[in-house]
Amino acid sequence: MSPVIVFHNPRCSKSRQALALLDSKDIKYKTFLYLDTEISYGEFVGILGLLRMKPRDILRVKEKEYLENNLNNMNLTDDDIIKIVLKNRKLIERPIAIKGEKAVIARPPERIFQVL
Predict the structure, then answer these.
(1) pTM value > 0.90
(2) Which of 3, 6, 69, 76 is least enclosed by beta carbons within 10 angstroms?
């Protein structure tokens, strides 16, 4: 059985809470430190597909990089947004949990169980 992969930011309380929930149920997982590790364009598009979301749907709009990159411009294409996000991974909402063909943004953290 494959483990849950959690896109994790150790500084994020919601991310830590999601891992604590998995620990409390003895569920195996692997963390992916997405801020430290590059994500390819194809991998990111695949994750969006599993989430059934558009790039704009997973943006952290309160990050300074959101305004610095003009992401409030509704004329930006999905391709434009993906390219910006991949250069500024801090903009990705977290935690994202993936297991097989299921994925969810675990906000609130209890949503992490939806991938099981």
Answers:
(1) yes
(2) 3
Mapped onto helix, strand or coil, the DSSP state of residue 34 is: coil
Which pLDDT band holds residue 1 (cuts at 50, 70, 90)? Answer: low
Decide: helix, strand or coil at residue 56.
helix
What is the average pLDDT across 84-106?
97
The residues that are catalytic are 12
Whose structure tokens read 């994790």?
8
Cβ atoms of residues 116 and 28 within 8 Å = no
Q: Which domains are present in the chain?
A: 1-34+94-116 (3.40.30.10), 40-92 (3.40.30.10)
